[in-house]
Amino acid sequence: MGSPAQELGQWTISHMTPAVRRASERRLVESYHRRVVEALRARGKEVEAQAFTLDQCWGEYVAGGAGRWIWFVPVLASMMHSKMGQFFLSISHELVKN
User: Fold this and answer.
1) What is the DSSP string of 40-69?
2) Which one, of 13, 8, 63, lies nearest residue 30 by Cα?
3) Is the full-model pTM beyond 0.85?
């Protein structure tokens, strides 16, 4: 199991075009981070809230989202016809390129 920031990364890769993702991802991660910290503090977890920095959240978003996506592509490609597999490979190429 990974972090929710990794889930957000995987979701943006699979549901947004590269241009839309690049234009909005920083704002999405900042908003996500703010909500996580608020939720931790509301539950009395101040130490955890302080430890979960925006830089840590961003790092998990970038590395985790890309890592999950790269791992997932061969699995998807093996289950689908070649055109759909090519679609996922093309998204991976854009992800690595950017």
Assistant:
1) HHHTT-HHHHHHS-HHHHHHIIIIIHHHHH
2) 8
3) no
CB of 64 within 8 A of CB of 2?
A: yes
> How many CB atoms neighbour CB 5 within 10 A?
23
Per-residue pLDDT at 95: 63
| DSSP3 helix / strand / coil % (the chain, rounded to 5) | 85, 0, 15
Indicate if the alpha-carbon torsion angle 9, 14, 20, 22 is positive or negative: positive
Q: Could you tell me which residue, 36 or 97, shows the higher pLDDT?
A: 36
Give the whole-angstrom CA distance, residue 19 versus residue 45.
36
Q: Using CA of residue 76, residue 77, residue 82, residue 87, what is the dihedral sign?
A: positive
